[in-house]
Queue: 2 jobs
Job 1
Amino acid sequence: TEPDKYISYPTNQFNVIHRFVADWNNLEDWTRSRNEEIASAFNTYRQYFPHQSDVKGAIKAIHRLQDIYKIRASHFTKGDPLDEGGRVRGQPFNVKALLLFIKDAYENEDWLKCSAWGQQAYYQMLQEPEYYPPDNTIWFDVADHFAFCLYKSGEMVTAVEVTSQMLEYYPDHERLVGNMKYFNSLVQKGEAEPVEDSDRHKRSAEPQANLDVPAEEEVDITFVPKIYPGADQAVLSEEEIEEVIQDKYYKNWGERMKKYKKLCKEPPTLTPEIKKQVDRLTCYYKANTPRTFLAPIKAEVVWPSPRLIVFYDLVTDEEAKTLMQLAQPHLNRATVHNKNTGKLENAEYRVSKTAWLDNDTPEDKGGVVKKVNRRMEDATELSMDYAELQQVNNYGMGGQYEPHYDMKTIHDMKVQKTGPSAHGNRVATLLLYMSDPVAGGATIFTDAGARLPAVRNAAVFWYNLLPNGDPDLLTRHAGCPVLAGTKWVMNKWFHVNDQVFTRPCDVNQFTREKEAKLWHGQYTL
């Protein structure tokens, strides 16, 4: 619908939340003075309305999108984060909204980002007479933050220019006078370029282009193909595997996050060897069970190592719609286990809402959950006896899940003070996409180099464990932030202990290597 299309755009989402919070109190006061009955109704539903925390969350989401997709503040300001030129679908940000982004970057000491947003607000005010000083305090607030952030960013010339303009209207402002003396002392020491007197009072009509160019991450996303399991991992002890999983001492965390951001933005560079492997991958109709013989499932092997299989049209549009409707009333902010305490908590590295659905969901009159479970069983050929419930996730503006593993680790059991599950570890994951984000929202495998866009009604499948039960270290994956639109997915996790006949364990290293070549793309069709 048109409202859905409008609200799917990030600038529109923010503007709606911001206006709602900023203007609601005024509307409520105005209504109360005229109609107590309507005012009472407002109070009843107020719990469902956006709050200041939602505004702060939306600001963080915009900054997250800016960081990962390298979007200029000017594109958000114009309502065009996708840089579509004539096809702008978003509403621009006004000065009051921009001031919130400036302050958030300022509080987080992100001086370059603060300067970029400050510049947009500052020059936008020059075009709007109602913001001219000294009558409007917003002008001072914007200029004050902007000048300081420029100084911290090393843009001394512009910082002096902005401060000079502020002193025209507030000549006795003690802090501004002090700042100007300090800036001038830096110029005298040769730590900043001198500013000509004629430039101190100018009002430049154009912002500086260099302040609005996001810094690109210096990281190589050319991936060398690895064969797991096999000789590489067969020699690793349980402790060594755990050290890789937990990324002990965060040796590789910074580099991995750079790869995460880069892969979210663009596909990886393929070496000739891995390109040859990818080109050999195939698609086929899966029809080797009684039900799939009657209704074959379209499958494609999309990545060799780890072996990623996509099942297309695993659900219908109507079934996906039903699953989303069933989950909607039960959605809650996703939680994660704290790595040190094991307690469940909200975290910035996982931003989504989740709900759980089972075969006995009362509202599911048509038995859709059960039908989809049966179809997933047919696609994977794994037993559902110990599988977890369907976990439905909704990722809105900036929603993401940073790199993580699905299987439970030794560290997890220690901090959560639990032993091994009676059902065993999560042997495999099936991730079903129930919507198409307009932009963003890809699934990436940071250690393997795979990047899969979200395809509505398709599901990607992979094994988290090797045939001998060890974790497959190449399955670390992430959900990239949603740039525009919304992303609905459903996770289905299968456990190892009921797969004795479908995927038997194998402790023999050589047999294991042979199976590894089959499961990880080193095979002859």
Note: Residues 342 and 412 are 7 Å apart (CA to CA).
Job 2
Amino acid sequence: MPVRYCPQFPNIVSKSRQVAAYRSYLIDIKMYQILLVAVLSLSAVAGATRVHLEPGQRVEPPVNSGWRVGRRCLPDEWIVLTFALKLRNVDELEEIFRRVSTPGSLSYRQHVSLEEVQVMTKPDGHVRKAVEAWLVQEGGGDRCRATGGGDFLECIVSCGIAERLLDTEFFQYLNNNETVMRANRLYSVPSDVSPLIDFVGGTHRFPPTRRQLTKISSPEALGVTPSVLRRQYNVSDTVGKMSSNKQAVAQFLKEHFSEIDLKEFFLLFGESFTHKDSVDKIVGPNGILAGVEASLDVEYIMSLGANISTWFWGTAGLHEGQEPFLQWIMAVGNTSDAPSVFSVSYGDDEDSLSTSYMERINQEFMKLGARGISVLFASGDDGTGCNGKTFVPSFPASSPYVTAVGGTGFEGIIGNAEVGNYISGGGFSNVFSQPDYQQGAVQKFFSSATHLPDSKYFNKSGRGYPDISALSNGFLVVCNLIPLPVAGTSCAAPTVSGIIALVNDHLLQAGKPVLGFLNPFLYQQASALTDITDGCNSGCLETGFCSQSGWDPVTGNGVPNFPALVQAALKHSH
């Protein structure tokens, strides 16, 4: 039997890798046949060994998040569990991801389709059957469905069955009018099942809470509007022209935007450029009462990426057991016509998440990048982060497979030089090593830095972030028809995202493919950005890192210079 995905990637996957993958595939079939038999006989094995899939996962709610524990989940109450089935050919996926994302590669921007990604990575059928057999055996397999790519299995089960499946207890947690069901201790699965699953969603992680990222700016910082940003980043009156070009914002806060607010915003601040005044597609819920975060994202991505088709992707979680971020990445990963740019203002402390969870999410990011989708995350508003002993990086900003957007501010009045914003999330991952694309830039930073925090606080060899920055203070947002001042890297993320979508528009006009995963391009073409050389972020009771010439963990490689980015992108197109 030939490996189905190999013929579809003749210029990307070598013949030797095809042969190796074929042999591995045959071994996998045999292994999972054996595992299936083992799983089916679990009930006959008394005291079967169990394995914690996420030993490093924090169980309690985040500090100051507002979540508090309530009653025990009743045995007949329903929750949703999401089983992340082990993917196939992850090494091949990463090879393709790197080749299509790296300028100079013969495969640069030769992105693959959703179908091709699914064929390559879809878990082997024996994996799903073995997991389903285990679920059925425990009474929980009759209300399960697989995602389109077969990579996740969502099951509606009673709390009684969930507690038996995972050897834990579920409790209701409350936050104002919000409730979720979560396990109060680490879950486990039988050792025969553990090789088949990366993690189980709906067990531990809590939905983000409002105002986690957006902060009201001080009155003296007011005045950043679309015209200021367009002038600052040399966008001028350029707008999108290609109907095939799409950009999106993602929301997990149960926040919504208002079309009335959007029209009012552009009436106030959109006179100098052509723009759309409505979102073209809404995925998920969108209510009547608008939220500041959602309004900010939509208004500013549509101002910088003006006249480009925009999607609002709201994922609040339809059930108490669902994780909004996980629901979003599952949905995008199975949507063939997803926008090519996503702006996301969301993050968790890296040390609160299990490595197995983060590694699987990274695989999902690789899938998106291989398809030519740029995913940009706000780097966070807590500087380096701090737990009293070490800096605390923010994930997904610390992932090597996304673009992290830091924050700057004007030094004094609007129009002055930009400096690093003290809130700008930045530092070095304690989990992920430095990717090849940034090693030279990071080494240069350390060799020339005149100020560094005590080395006990950070991991010098970790993935450094952010990658790029933009203004993050004094933004004016219209929310429920009221202009409000806001600040945070959640201002910078949609700003940069709209500019990237506009660069994509120029590529499409020239008959070229879109940028896709941005980081190798941003580091190779750092001269297409305006370097920020002043300003420090906050650390542990002292200054964190400081901006300097070249890349730094406050502002990354700098802020956008739109004409230079377009020129560099066109130059490096096949």
Note: The CA atoms of residues 159 and 303 lie 46 Å apart.
